[in-house]
Amino acid sequence: MDSADTTTAAELRRRLAEISAHEQGDPSRNALSRRDLGLFTAVTLGITLLGFLVLAL
Amino acid sequence: MSTARGERGRPVTDGENGGSLGSLPLLRKERIWNGSDFTGVNISLAIATWAFLVGGSTALLVGFQQGIAAMVIGNAIGLGFMILASVVASQRYGVEQYTILRPVFGLVGVGILVFTVILITEMGWSSLLAIMVGRAVTQVSNSTFSTDFGPESLMVTFFALMAIAISWWILSRGPVTIGRFNKFIAPGLIVVTVFLMIFLVLNTSWDALLTAAPLAPFEDDRLNFALAVEFNAGVGVSWYPVMGSLARLTKTPRAALWPSYGGLLGATLIAQIVGMAAALTLGDSDPTVWMLPFGGPLLGAFILLFIAFANITSTSSIVYSTVLALRQASGNLLSRVRWAWLCAAFFVLPAILAFFPGFMYEQFMVFVTLSGAFLAPMCGAIIADYFVLRRQRVELEHLYRHRSDSVYHFSGGINWAGLGAVAAGAVFYLVIYNPVTLTTLPVFSYITASLPSAIVGAVVYYALARVLYVRRGIGGYASAAAKIEERA
Predict the structure, then answer these.
(1) How confident is the model at residue A17 (pLDDT cuts 50, 70, 90)?
(2) pLDDT averaged over chain B?
């Protein structure tokens, strides 16, 4: 485990075990969905275009 | 799993260990923020005095309309790829952001980046905020006691050093104390922003703002606009060192992604635009100069003192996450150094820089863009690693294993694809735009530098990682792919 931590290796093992046993498939551990990723990219591009629109007005 | 080195069982106080949750993965019950909580956190972060400073500095290059466009474009792009790189993986695994970087750069590689790019970036910001405190307090002194301290006088340095000392004191008390101060600083800064808006409406007209000339532009209008966009993109990317460690406290990927983008972008734009309008109205880019003309001697002095205090707590906040990162990245090296001493060591360079207040203000844009030259390709490499090569899967346990026990050990603890990508992206950046010499290639006026260098970082990382590691089964890339196939 990370030597910089002030907690113990046992604490890390306990956490990994709990995550493995109880948190697999939990919404907090979901990957970012393709839909959200696509939407995020589209929103970023949209706001960027809005900036160019401000420039053009 | 390897056993812990430097393992200690005794309880520690808040200030002693930085009061952090360390680098250990958070459990479901420890993730306390939903989307609305995290939006508030991001707004509090973004409504800070540095936003006024960025707005004022943008006014040096472009007028009001072009400035708004540059801020929208620059921040949208810079925040866009910074958030994908910093927030998403830390949220999913509940892991502190420099620990989750180990698959991209290796344990030693992360240490190299933290002790160079991240450290210098945050030292620069804290020095600048401290000098701003010095300028604010001397303005109050000049107004109240009829003193005549100039913006580069020794008294500015004196109060900047005082600010650093107070920041250190707050920081050494740990995050609970920082949080206590921030609870009323953020709402106070929202009030200051509204105050500036009201005084701008009362003291200037829409026409005057739209026709106001930039304060110190170059001859080429297109270049001025590109520089303003690049500066704002650099500001967006400069949020990188703090975002991941905050996002791991959120409950879902959506609660991390959208509030960080919306909160930072919205609040930053409002504060920056107000700052730019104030600078164009008063003809000065320094926020500490605006308050007395707008608010009068009493209210203006009060706001200046509030800004001074807000800067001190902002400094504590950003330095907290950086010192924590230094400790995590150093392995055994700094694990036994007391928290207060570590914080004191961080402030040595900012304290030296406080003796050059004029230089720091003049070089503000250079410093922001230069740090962006390294942070942007870092983000590009992280995105290529996490989204493309690993398909959002990391071996949680291996993040904490040592040496060859970990699949993320690579060679000597360094993922050369990661460091190579940062080097290539930074060189590309500095070739098309060198913020120190201000030399640019013609293409810079069309594509700027941050986004292209992030793309270069991503492409170089992808190519090097495939050649050096993926094909040879090193680095845990294959296991990530196998698990995806298994699930399919």
Answers:
(1) very high
(2) 89
Task: Find the residue in A nearest to B30 (Cα).
Answer: A28
The per-residue DSSP string of B428-476 comes to HHHHHEETTTTEE-TTHHHH-SHHHHHHHHHHHHHHHHIIIIITTT-SS
B92 vs A30: CB contact, 8 Å cut-off? yes
Domain contains A15: yes
Residue A2 domain-assigned (yes or no): no
Residues of A in contact with B5 (CB under 8 A): 3
Structural domain includes residue B211: yes
Return the structure tokens found at B428: 């590309």
Residue B3 above 80 pLDDT?
A: no
ipTM: 0.90
The three-state secondary structure class of B33 is strand
What domain count does chain B have? 1
CB B55 within 8 A of CB B211: no
A4 part of a folded domain: no
pLDDT digits (tens, 9 = 90+) for B310-358: 888 888 888 888 888 888 787 777 878 888 999 999 999 999 999 999 9
Q: Are B12 and B19 in contact, with CB atoms under 8 Å apart?
A: no
Q: Do A1 and B4 touch (CB under 8 A)?
A: yes
Give which of B270, B276, B307 is closest to B291, Cα–Cα: B307
Closest by CA to B5, choosing from A13, A17, A6, is A6
Tens digits of per-residue pLDDT, B8-66?
Answer: 333 333 344 444 456 789 999 999 899 998 998 888 888 878 899 999 999 999 999 99
Query: What is the domain extent for residue A45?
Result: 9-56
Rounded-to-integer distance, Cα B277 and Cα B165, Å: 33
- Answer yes or no: is B55 within a domain: yes
Query: What domain range includes position B350?
Result: 32-370
Q: Within an 8 Å CB–CB cutoff, is residue B467 touching chain A?
A: no
* Domain at B267, CATH number: 1.10.4160.10
- B470 within some domain: no
Cβ contacts of B88 on chain A, cutoff 8 Å? 32
Residue of B254, B269, B383 best to disrupt the A interface, most CBs of A under 10 A: B254
- Write down the pLDDT at residue B16: 45
- Of B451, B457, B448, nearest to B427 (Cα)? B457
What is the average per-residue pLDDT within B80-103? 95
Residues of B in Cβ contact (< 8 Å) with A41: 80
When divided into structural domains, chain A yields a total of 1
- Encode pLDDT of A24-44 as tens digits: 889 999 999 999 999 999 999
